Amino acid sequence: MLGAIFGDIVGSVYEWNNVKTKDFQPLVAPRAFFTDDTVLTIAVADALLNNRPPAEALKDWGRRYPNVSWGGRFSRWLFSEETAPYGSFGNGAAMRVSPAGLLGRDLGEVVRLSDHVTAATHDHPEGLKGAAATATAIFLARRGAGADEIRAAVTETFGYDLSTTVDAIRPSYTFDETCQGSVPQALVCALEATDFEDAIRNAISLGGDSDTLAAICGGVAEARFGMPEDMAQAAWTRLPADMRQVLQDLYAAAGAM
Q1: Model pTM greater than 0.90?
Q2: What is the pLDDT of residue 256?
Q3: Do residues 131 and 123 make contact, with C-beta atoms less than 8 angstroms apart?
Q4: Would you call 8 helix, strand, or coil by DSSP?
Q5: What is the CATH number of the domain that holds 162?
Q6: Cα R_g (the chain), whole angstroms
Q7: Residues 161, 209: Cα–Cα separation, whole Å
Q8: Range of 94's domain?
């Protein structure tokens, strides 16, 4: 989960100022910050850890941090009294789902947890699929599956084509906030990578919705490689105390399974 947050922070300065190279410097810009991607990842963890209704947790955390660049449809839902989902297939479904991949004890439970937290807002089939595919990749990576095994499982179960490469995607890739237009690309970035940092650099180098691509990628990359201590600290030190507590509780719960 901290890998997803780190990806969000790194990508925060590139979402509206894309780079099409892996060689951007520094890795974490001084003005980098957490965005709505991090806030909602924390909310999902809270919902799963404390058996809170997902809509309640999303609204609680979202309203605690009202100034983090909310998307239009989600923002209208967040600050309204509405609690029903609104049929979204946006990539917000996938960028916030990493806690399901950590807490599920088998693939069936991972998908059930993913669907449970996703359907609160993103109840379109493509939204549910994007989140479940991401959570599945995280679960398999945590269990030691290699890139080829993860690629094959995600393709067979969810129908995403993960056979391409980062270099093939990059030249023509543009901003796309849908699951179907960003989840496969983010997964390719994580599965092609040689280490955690390489995965994050892959995701940023595509351009597009940089913070969300790197958040999706970062959750999978953490599960595959772990995180270097300096990068974990760079994310940790940018988080307020309430978020840190949820992270600690999540890792404690995941480690006990």
Answers
A1: yes
A2: 57
A3: no
A4: helix
A5: 1.10.4080.10
A6: 16
A7: 20
A8: 2-255
Contacts 24+ apart (CB under 8 A), 43-47: 43/96, 44/96, 44/97, 44/98, 44/99, 44/100, 44/117, 45/1, 45/99, 45/246, 45/247, 45/249, 45/250, 46/246, 47/117
The total of structural domains in the chain comes to 1
Question: Is the link from the previous residue into 171 a cis peptide, with omega within 30 of 0?
Answer: no
Dump pLDDT digits (tens) for 101-155. 999 999 999 999 999 999 999 999 999 999 999 999 999 999 999 999 999 999 9
Q: Residues in the chain with pLDDT < 50?
A: 257
Neighbours of 87 (CB within 10 A): 12
Q: DSSP alpha helices (H): ranges in 79-143?
A: 92-95, 98-103, 107-118, 125-142
Which own/partner contact pairs does 173-177 have at CB distance under 8 Å and 24+ positions apart?
Answer: 173/206, 173/207, 173/208, 174/207, 174/208, 175/18, 175/207, 175/208, 175/209, 176/91, 176/208, 176/209, 177/71, 177/90, 177/91, 177/92, 177/209, 177/212
